[in-house]
Design goal:
One of its GO terms (cellular component) is peptidoglycan-based cell wall. The protein is α+β, with helices and mostly antiparallel strands. Among the domains are: 75-163, Penicillin-binding protein 1b fold, CATH 3.30.2060; 183-361, Orthogonal Bundle (Penicillin binding protein transpeptidase fold), CATH 1.10.3810.10; 724-771, no CATH class. The chain has 23 helices and 32 strands. A hairpin with a 3-residue loop joins strand 28 and strand 29 (678-686). Helix 3 packs across helix 10, helix 5 (233-242) crosses helix 6 and helix 10 runs antiparallel to helix 11.
Length: 773
C-alpha cells in the first residue's frame, strides 16, 4: 500500500499534464492566426496607404484642376487722340466694377470732373505682359482723349491700358468653374476667419483631430441630431478632391487616411491653398462655383483683393451651406451667419469692438442679380471658337488654364443688343417674323467689336450675322463708284452720268432693263448725286462703262471672299452676302483702303502665361487711299442729304458716313456706316425670304440710329490725304474750274488729274492770250 502512493501521484500529474496540452495548443493556434492576420492587415493597410499616397501625389504634384479657358474682351487703350469720350470711359469703368469716389485712395477707385478722370487702375495680366497698379489723370477734349498723365511723376504716357472684361470661362470638363488665386494674394482676414470657423487647430494636428471628432460627437449626442462636424480642413479637402459625398464608415476611414497622408507629405500653406481654391461656394445655374476667387466675382462682382471685411467674412460664412445661406434668397440668414464669423474674429482679437460694430451694420453689398456673371454672346462666341480652331487647332480649348483675348468691345455689344431689342420690337409690330444680323467692327484694329445674330440677342442658334446669304442691294454701289473714281482722268465726283433707259442681256439669255425707284429718268446727273441718292440707272451705265469685272475685282480686293457672278445685275447688288462680309469690305473703306481680315481673337496665353505662336492677320493695300477718301466723302453726303438724311438730322453736329441698301421687292433691308471709331453692317429681313415692306433707311438704318443713340458717335476726322485737293467743278458739265466761278461746286478731287480751266472757262482776251493768261 505504501509503495502505491507515489504511483498515484504520478498518475495525477500525468493526468494534469494531459489536460493542459489541448489548452496550450489552442492558444498557440490563436496567436499564430492573430499575428498572421495582423501582418496581413498591416501589409494591406500599408499597401493601401502607398496606393493612396500615389493617388494623392498625382493630384497634388500634377495639375490639381482643369481650369476653364478664360475669355476676355479687348483691353481699352487710352492715348492722346484716342476716339474715346469722357462718358464712354466712365461707363467702361463701371462695367469693370470700379467705384466712383471723391478722391481715389486705393486700386479700383476713380473720380471724375467734366473733362477729367482720376483713376487708380488695378494690376492685371495684359497679353503683352503684366501691368502694375497705376494712378493716372485722363483728360478729354471734343475729339476724345487729349492726355494721359501718370500721377507719380506727372509724366505723359504714350498709351495706357485698362484691364479687359472677363466675358466667360469655357467649361469643357466636369462642370466645375473656378478662378485660381494663390494664398499670397488672398486677404488675411479670409484665412484667419476660415481657421477660426472651420479648423482652429489646423496648424497643430496631423490631418485628423481626435479631440474635434470627440467634441462633435458629444455635441451631436446632446442635440439628438448632427449639428457639428469633426472634420478638419485637410479631411474636407480629401473628401472634395478624391471622394464622393456618400455617408459611410468606409468613406470616413478612407478620408482620414488620406488626410494623414496629405498632412505628412505637404506643407500646411499648400494644403490651405488647395482648400481655398477647391471648396464649393455655390451654384451658378449648371456651373458649380468653386474657390474663393470665383466666389468673389459670383457674389460681389469684383476681385477678391477689393472686398470689404464684411464681404470677406461672408465668403467664409457661406462655406457651411451655400444653398442654405444663399444671400439672394435668404438675406437675413446669410447676414446672421456672416455676423457670427465677424464675432469670432472679434473674440479672437483680430477685430476691435468698433470694427466689429461697423462691419455687422454694413449691408451684404451683393452684385445686382440682374447683372450677369457670364456674358451671353452666342453669335460672337461661335465666331471666336471657329477662329481659335482655324488658327490654333481644335484641341486648344481642352487645354487647362488658357487665356483668350478677344476684340469684343463690351460697351458696343451692350449698345448693339439694346438697339436690336428696341428697334425690332417696334418693327415687329407689323411683322413678327422679322429677323436681324448685326456686326460692329473697331475701325482702328479691324476687330469684331460687337455681334448680334438674332432679334433675341442671347438666343443660341442660327447666327444671321455670319450665316445668311442675301442680296446686298445698293451696298455694292460704293465699290462701283470707287472703281470709277480710281480713273481720275475720266471720272470725278462731278462727272455727269447718263440717267437714260438701258436694256442689257443678263447673261442667261434674258434682257434686263433696270429702273430707278421712282420710275423716272433725269437725262444726266452728277456722279455724287447718283451716289448719295442711290439712283440705279446711272450706276448701271457707269458700271458698264468701267466693266463689271473691274467692279468685281475692286470688291475682291476690299475683302469679299465669295465668288461674284459677273452679270450686269451685280451692279445693283445681285450679290449674296452676310453682315460679316459687308462689314469686312466697309471696314476697308473706313480704313482708307487698307484691307485687314476681320478677327475676333488677338492673343492666346497658355497656363504659364506664355503667348502661343500664331500667323499674322492677312492684310494688304486694297484701294488707293486718295480714291477711298473720295468714296468716304460721298458716303458722308449720303447721311447729310441723301438716302440716310434722317440719320444726319438725328445727329446734326456729327460727321457720319453711311449707305442704305434694299433688295428687290423690299425683301432685305441693309445699312452700312461708320463714325470715327466703329463700322457697322446691319441686315433686317425674314428667314423665309418674304417681303418686309422695309427700305434700308426704314429698317436696318433705324437699328443703327438707335445704336448711336445709346453709344454716342464720335465725328469722323476728315484729315487731308496726300494727293487730294479741294477742287471746283461746273455743276452741269463737271468741268474743273477755278474757285469762285459761276455755277461751280466745291468737291474734293485727285490732284493728279485736277486741271481747272483758266478764266472760269470763258474765251481769253487778246491780252490774256498774249501774256499766257
Amino acid at each position: 500500500m505504501k509503495k502505491a502512493a507515489p504511483k498515484k501521484r504520478a498518475s495525477k500529474a500525468k493526468v494534469v499534464k494531459k489536460a493542459n496540452k489541448p489548452s496550450t495548443g489552442l492558444g498557440r493556434r490563436i496567436w499564430s492566426i492573430s499575428w498572421k492576420l495582423g501582418l496581413i492587415l498591416f501589409v494591406a493597410v500599408l499597401s493601401y496607404g502607398i496606393y493612396l499616397d500615389q493617388v494623392i501625389a498625382r493630384k497634388f504634384e500634377g495639375q490639381k484642376w482643369h481650369l476653364p479657358a478664360q475669355v476676355f474682351s479687348r483691353s481699352m487703350a487710352l492715348y492722346p487722340g484716342a476716339a474715346v469720350s469722357h462718358g464712354q470711359l466712365i461707363a467702361e469703368l463701371k462695367l469693370l466694377g470700379y467705384r466712383k469716389v471723391a478722391n481715389p485712395r486705393q486700386v479700383g477707385e476713380f473720380s471724375a470732373s467734366k473733362t477729367r478722370v482720376d483713376l487708380w487702375r488695378r494690376p492685371f495680366l495684359h497679353p503683352k505682359g503684366s501691368q502694375a497698379e497705376q494712378r493716372v489723370m485722363i483728360a478729354f477734349d471734343s475729339q476724345g482723349v487729349s492726355s494721359v498723365t501718370r500721377a507719380s511723376d506727372k509724366r505723359q504716357l504714350a498709351v495706357f491700358h485698362l484691364e479687359p472684361v472677363l466675358l466667360d470661362r469655357i467649361i469643357t470638363g466636369d462642370g466645375e468653374d473656378r478662378l485660381f488665386v494663390p494664398t499670397a494674394k488672398l486677404p488675411q482676414p479670409i484665412i484667419d476667419s476660415l481657421i477660426l470657423v472651420e479648423d482652429r487647430n489646423f496648424y497643430e494636428h496631423h490631418g485628423v483631430s481626435p479631440f474635434a471628432i470627440l467634441r462633435a460627437a458629444l455635441v451631436n449626442i446632446s442635440a439628438g441630431r448632427t449639428v457639428q462636424g469633426g472634420s478638419t480642413l485637410t479631411q474636407q479637402l480629401a473628401k472634395n478632391f478624391f471622394l464622393s459625398s456618400e455617408r459611410s464608415l468606409v468613406r470616413k476611414i478612407r478620408e482620414a487616411l488620406m488626410a494623414i497622408i496629405i498632412d505628412f507629405r505637404y506643407e500646411k500653406d499648400e494644403i490651405l491653398e488647395a482648400y481655398l481654391n477647391e471648396v464649393y461656394m455655390g451654384q451658378d445655374k449648371s456651373r458649380g462655383v468653386h474657390g474663393m476667387g470665383l466666389a468673389s466675382q459670383f457674389y460681389f462682382g469684383r476681385p477678391i483683393a477689393e472686398l470689404t471685411l464684411p464681404q470677406q467674412a461672408f465668403l467664409v460664412a457661406v462655406i457651411k451651406g451655400p444653398s442654405y445661406y444663399n444671400p439672394w434668397r435668404y438675406p437675413e440668414r446669410a447676414a446672421s451667419r456672416r455676423d457670427l464669423v465677424l464675432r469670432l474674429l472679434m473674440e479672437d482679437g483680430k477685430l476691435s469692438v468698433a470694427q466689429y460694430t461697423a462691419a455687422v451694420e454694413s449691408p451684404l453689398g451683393l452684385r445686382s442679380a440682374d447683372k450677369p456673371v457670364h456674358q451671353k454672346l452666342p453669335a460672337f462666341f461661335a465666331v471666336v471658337q471657329h477662329e481659335l480652331g482655324r488658327r490654333f487647332g481644335d484641341s486648344l480649348l481642352k487645354q487647362s488654364g488658357i487665356k483668350v483675348y478677344t476684340t469684343l468691345d463690351p460697351m458696343a455689344q451692350e449698345a448693339a443688343e439694346k438697339a436690336v431689342k428696341k428697334t425690332m420690337a417696334r418693327l415687329g409690330k407689323n411683322d413678327q417674323d422679322l429677323q436681324i444680323g448685326m456686326v460692329v467692327t473697331d475701325k482702328y484694329s479691324a476687330g469684331i467689336a460687337a455681334m448680334v445674330g438674332d432679334k433675341a440677342p442671347g438666343y443660341k442658334g442660327y447666327n444671321r450675322a455670319v450665316e445668311i446669304r442675301r442680296p446686298i442691294g445698293s451696298l455694292i454701289k460704293p465699290f462701283v463708284y470707287a472703281t470709277a473714281l480710281n480713273q481720275p482722268a475720266k471720272y470725278t465726283l462731278a462727272t455727269p452720268l447718263k440717267d437714260q433707259p438701258i436694256t442689257l442681256n443678263n447673261g442667261q439669255g434674258k434682257t434686263w432693263s433696270p429702273q430707278n425707284v421712282d420710275k423716272k429718268f433725269r437725262g444726266e446727273v452728277p456722279l455724287l448725286t447718283a451716289f448719295k441718292k442711290s439712283i440705279n440707272v446711272p450706276t448701271v451705265n457707269l458700271g458698264m462703262e468701267i466693266g463689271v469685272s473691274s467692279v468685281a475685282t475692286t470688291l475682291d480686293k476690299a475683302g469679299w471672299r465669295d465668288k461674284v457672278s459677273e452679270y450686269p445685275s451685280m451692279l445693283l447688288g445681285a450679290v449674296n452676302g452676310s453682315p460679316l462680309m459687308v462689314a469686312q469690305v466697309y471696314q476697308t473703306i473706313a480704313d482708307n483702303g487698307h484691307y485687314r481680315r476681320l478677327s475676333s481673337v488677338t492673343d492666346v496665353l497658355d497656363m504659364e502665361n506664355n503667348p502661343l505662336p500664331v500667323k499674322r492677320v492677312e492684310q494688304s493695300e486694297a484701294l488707293a487711299a486718295s480714291t477711298t477718301y473720295l468714296v468716304q466723302y460721298a458716303m458722308t453726303q449720303v447721311v447729310k442729304s441723301g438716302t440716310a438724311s434722317r440719320l444726319g438730322r438725328t445727329f446734326p453736329h456729327t460727321t457720319l458716313a453711311g449707305k442704305t441698301g434694299t433688295s428687290n421687292d423690299s425683301r432685305d433691308s441693309w445699312f452700312a456706316g461708320f463714325d470715327e471709331r466703329n463700322v457697322a453692317a446691319i441686315w433686317v429681313g425674314r428667314d423665309d425670304n418674304g417681303k418686309t415692306g422695309l427700305y434700308g433707311s426704314s429698317g436696318a438704318m433705324a437699328v443703327y440710329q438707335d445704336f448711336l443713340g445709346i453709344r454716342p458717335p464720335i465725328s469722323l476726322r476728315r484729315t487731308p490725304i496726300s494727293g487730294v485737293v479741294n477742287g471746283h467743278f461746273d455743276k452741269t458739265t463737271g468741268v474743273a474750274k477755278q474757285a469762285g466761278c459761276e455755277n461751280s461746286i466745291a468737291l474734293p478731287a485727285l490732284a493728279a488729274s485736277y486741271h481747272p480751266a483758266k478764266n472760269c472757262g470763258e474765251p481769253l482776251s487778246w491780252w490774256q492770250q498774249l501774256t499766257g493768261g
